[in-house]
Amino acid sequence: MNPNNTLYIVVPCYKEQEVLPETSKRLRAKLIELREAGKISDKSRVMFVNDGSSDNTWPMIAELHEKEPEFFSGVNLSRNRGHQNALLAGLMTAVNYADMIVSMDADLQDDVNAVDGMVDAYHEGFEVVYGVRSKRDTDTFFKRFTAEGFYKVMKALGVDIVFNHADYRLMSRRAVEGLAEFSEVNLFLRGIVPQIGYKWTTVTYERAERFAGESKYPLKKMLAFAADGITSFSVKPIRLVFSAGVIVFLVSLVMLLYALISKLMGSTTAGWTSLMGSIWLIGGIQLLSLGIVGEYIGKIYNETKRRPRFIIERVLNK
After folding, report:
1. How far is 241 from 246, CA to CA, in rounded Å?
2. Cystine design at 205: which of 66, 103, 114, 276 (Cβ 3.0–4.6 Å)?
3. Whole-prediction pTM value?
4. Which H or E run contains 96?
């Protein structure tokens, strides 16, 4: 066994006290299996990242580390920073100890056994291995329709993104060091990671139901996350606003010409419906356009402040 094949599994946690016992049990078993197979070193660990949870998540992580430091380590953020920042904090901490890093959620929807295929691909020379869902049978029709629609929209807007991939992936140390070169505050990792380059492949798996607890991504957060992804990686929406403005302007010129001709011919009549419809249409387009432009300006505002994306309060790693 190559002693440098150290694997760290980074798991962001936010109020995961209900699922953490089972998650730690399964990941511990997976580390043992991979160690015995000679695929990873004995220095490999599971690194739980507490994203400012208000429940017992961090005390449970600390207890796991205290009892079995050869399997578990922990990172505690100073406050809640969101899933993407918590994941990044784990990656940037684990890169100091690991040769390869797998990121996954704590809810056990990602198949733990897919780690085997990721590690095998790493040994074959791949530096990024994406976990891709083979099907979406466990999703509701609405979730499946919106999720697949999101990926298709992102592709149509020219964003380099892996279809049906979330944040379940393996990255080599070199790939994570490349990720550290990206300094933007508005994080959308599933769009940033493909920008790194390097040799990559995919591993398919079936996504299960959440083992316990509640989803931390309700519809409101999902929509906000999708908007972040689109506006962080494509300027096409703002170009569409410009195109719509040009079209509306041309139509208004035609309507102005029509109004003048009608006036000269003396055939004008009171048209309340058409007038009100035009006002609401133009007003709606203007407000929509301002909203899209404002979204980009807001991102520029956040980037120029250069505030830290996360602050680590404590690291437990032996």
Report:
1. 9
2. 114
3. 0.72
4. none
